[in-house]
Design goal:
The chain has 4 helices and 5 strands. By secondary structure, it is α/β, with parallel strands linked by helices. The protein has a domain of 148 residues: Rossmann fold, CATH 3.40.50. β1, α2 and β2 form a beta-alpha-beta unit. The radius of gyration is 52 Å and the shape is rod-shaped. It starts with a helix and ends in a 6-residue tail after the last helix.
Length: 225
């Protein structure tokens, strides 16, 4: 029948168009699907391994030793100027002074090998950059000046005259006279000490310690107890 034939042709045409549309859709969507399926999700950045905790406590420092503190070098020299005196007495004063200075803890004391006059002591201080030079001599106490011609002078008649010279310049930093002071014996007399030459030598040793205390005071260093 003509009606059915026309209807059949229209149905086939419509079916072909629908199939063609679906084919086009499939051809367009297929590459997108393949591309989408081939894309991998980006990798998430991995966090680094956790570091061990830092030690917040400060490092333990070793306690500073007293020897690490710079000490002041002081050289003690003497001159035997009085013909009636003995070098034993000068060395007694020197040794007592050195011993006292060493007990302060802030001084490095030393002694010259031989006696030295005042000019030589000043030149020694000028030639040094850090060493103070203490020069001293024994002289007759003013109250015993009339006994100066008696030959050998007993130690109890002597006084200590000293000066300390500054390193680099040789200028006098301190100085003066130290007189003997009787210590400890009956009636104020000094007690003799074995090996020091008797009571007079003991008094000279005391004068040497007093000279050291004056040096310490001039350098701003505390006296030892």
């Amino acid at each position: 029948m003509p009606y059915n034939s026309s209807y059949l042709r229209s149905f086939k045409m419509h079916h072909r168009k629908a199939a063609l549309v679906w084919l086009l859709i499939f051809l367009i969507a297929a590459p997108l699907s393949v591309a989408q399926s081939g894309r991998r999700p980006p990798k998430q950045p991995t966090s680094p391994d956790p570091l061990p905790p830092k030690n917040e406590e400060p490092p333990i420092k070793a306690p500073s030793e007293p020897n690490s503190v710079p000490k002041i070098p002081v050289k003690v020299v003497w001159q035997l100027s009085h013909i009636g005196s003995s070098s034993i007495y000068s060395r007694t004063v020197q040794e007592a002074c050195l011993d006292r200075l060493s007990k302060s803890g802030s001084i490095t004391p030393s002694a010259a090998a031989d006696e030295m006059n005042r000019k030589q002591a000043i030149d020694m201080a000028k030639a040094s950059t850090e060493t103070y030079v203490v020069w001293f001599e024994l002289e007759l106490d003013s109250q015993y000046q009339d006994r100066g011609g008696m030959g050998s002078v007993p130690p109890q008649y002597l006084a200590v005259r000293f000066e300390m010279y500054t390193p680099g310049t040789g200028k006098t930093k301190t100085g003066g006279r130290v007189y003997q002071r009787p210590m400890g014996g009956p009636g104020g007399l000094p007690l003799p000490v074995p090996g020091t030459g008797g009571s007079g030598a003991y008094s000279l040793a005391y004068a040497g310690r007093e000279m050291a205390d004056r040096v310490l005071d001039s350098l701003g260093v505390s006296r030892p107890h």
